[in-house]
Amino acid sequence: MRVLALCPGPVETAFFDVVGTRQVAVGPVATAGQVALAGLRGLEQGRASLIAGWRNWLRANLPRFAPRAFTARMAAGMLKPREAPALPARSV
Where are the domains of the chain? Predict the structure, then answer.
């Protein structure tokens, strides 16, 4: 039996519709087919883990090479609560 830990990054699914924003995804979003193909290739190569896409690999590994202060500022910016859009008034 072979097992692969696949880290796809943002994938074009209904997730963004449910969340109600595309701010979660930065840059291009992979299709489910692209992610599945990358996973199958990783299994064929006998890999234990795979970060699909070079942009996702770079995002995952950037903190290893960047100064800690830069990484902390980037993380703070990404995790900062965003102002929620105003909901329409409900009629009573």
Answer: 5-69
Query: Is the separation of the CB atoms in 67 and 21 below 8 Å?
Result: no
At 20, the amino acid letter reads: G
Q: Which helix (H) or strand (E) holds 92?
A: none
Q: Which long-range contacts (CB under 8 A, 24 or more apart) does 42-49 make?
A: 42/4, 42/6, 43/2, 43/4, 46/2, 47/4, 48/3, 48/4, 48/5, 49/4, 49/5, 49/6, 49/7
SS (H, E, C) 30-57: ECHHHHHHHHHHHHHCCCCEEECCHHHH
What is the pLDDT tens value at each position of the chain, 92 positions in all?
889 999 998 888 887 777 776 665 667 788 999 999 999 999 999 999 999 988 889 888 988 999 999 989 988 887 777 676 666 667 66
